[in-house]
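Note to self: the last two entries modelled the partners one at a time, which told us nothing about the interface. This time every component goes in together.
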Amino acid sequence: MNRATSLSRETLSLAPGARARNRGDGAFRGIVTALAWSILALVALMVFKMVDASMPAIQRFGLEFLWGTTWDPVGQRFGALPFIFGTVVSSLIALLVGGPIGLGAAIFLSELAPGWLRNPISFLVELLAAIPSVVYGLWGIFVMAPWLRSSVEPFLGQSLGFLPLFQGPSYGIGMLAGGLILAIMILPTITAVSRDVLRAVPVVQREGMLALGATRWEVIRHVVVPSALSGILGAVILGMGRALGETMAVTMVIGNRPEIVASLFAPSYTMASVIANEFSEATYNLYLSVLMEIGLALLGVTLLLNTLARLLVWRTTRRAQGGY
Amino acid sequence: MTGAGSTFIYPLYSKWFDVYYKKTGVQINYQSVGSGAGIQQLTQRTVDFGASDAPMTDEQLKAAPGEVLHIPTVIGAVVVTYNLAGIDKGLKLSGDTLSGIFLGTISKWSDPKITADNPGLKLPDTDIAVVHRSDGSGTTNIFTDYLSAVSPGWKSKVGKSTSVNWPVGIGAKGNEGVAGQVKQTPGAIGYVELAYAVQNKLPYAFMKNQAGQFVEPTLESTTAAAAGSAANMPADLRVSIVNASGENSYPIVGYTYILVYKNQQDPAKGKALVDFLWWAVHDGEQYAPGLLYAPLPKEVVARDEAQIKAITSQGKQLYQQ
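The predicted structure of the combined assembly is written out below.
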């Protein structure tokens, strides 16, 4: 990896001279620059259109929209807080459950798995990423939810029922089901990306530690994971992005009830789900506009969480680099 | 010709378009995007007709750039399905009881109101788990229309729409979602389209109608409800027919409409549209029962004829014998 970076830097510094000699180079540079800018322009255009379309809702409800808790399409009263809550909490559950499993699997695949096992498992993990989300949703309804209702939730209720998180009747469908299905869905992303960054840690570093008499665990704990940390966090951020925006599978298992309840057994609702559910039958303009504003809020939440995560990555990598 | 709207009616309309194409060579493209989106596309004149499971509101009619005619095509029914061990079919419910369940004031199957509707039936002392549609839908519109008609409490607290603020219960996506959730949850109750319930052999409740009879939801009792209310239809045919009069009328039903502009901009296209509509409400109706939609009673077909005859282009009537 290091060599690759230094090479590309060399090429970059050569670029001005090369441009003088080669017109094709200039054209290429122009094309890729335009392509890069077109992505920015696309995002800007999207934001502009969404703000434009949500204007009626913004004018009607103002900032109150963000902390209103009523969602009544008949009475034309709309508040986004239950959806924001549902999106953030279900994604958080997904990260708490899927993150450690994904990282564990990645460490196993890159450090411990024997060669004959590594490829089949990697293949299966990547296959998970290719399953359409509606299939996850169906599996969630017909397999996971009944299992949660009959086994997991009663068990949690009995053993941890003193916590408000695990109280109330268990339907199987609910926040917990939504979070778990997301955890499964973000697993392949976290595993595959983490595995690649772990593999990119130079073998020499591992060998050096081993030569000093370190155990496998110490090598992983003190060398491999720390030097790959920023990449691992990047993998988690990618996973979080998927969790925040995932629509279909979550809609099918989360119960779709816009309420803020502490219990994970209770039904909840996410921003992406309410847009998917209600957009096609939104019968008046303000309603449509409100759904647009939910989309805008989702964009805002995603941006905010991504920024926070990036800051975290930036801080940890700086600290890690300082340590060397 | 292009149309857009209701997903509920899509199976029947695609059959219609197919048969009509083979018969006349006129091709009709239909996007099943949902009633709300269909109305929007009609308003923006991006399609020649819209299809909706609910009549357009006054506000929507005002927003349209021309006068819009409502043409009922078939009748849809919504049935109440449930999961009670040992009770396969024929649980009896009155409107008052049903609204109590969905308002959350009745929360146990052993509630005196439910047992009063079902003398002799042994009902368990379990919690009722309410399941409703999470996606906006014409089914929800008919169902909440009915609850609003029979319960003043529902009307003032919740009201009717394609999506409402449900007092209790969990939301599941689509008929299949509701049916799946009800099937898996002991003590659950939910609502689905008649066609879906019949095809999947779900247990359903007999509903008490205005005449005091408990009526089984069938195509016949659905058509009967439309016939029972045909005499009181307003001129624009925008009407709710829930809780209709008549001994055999099933109470949770509603029309699905084709929406067209009264004044067609393009005479040739307008003529083709009029011909198709005329065919649809006459010959087309025979395809409805096979797909489990209730055909129109003849009283309503006559009202449709008047609507179709009213369609003009450049000041001339488009319908010809």
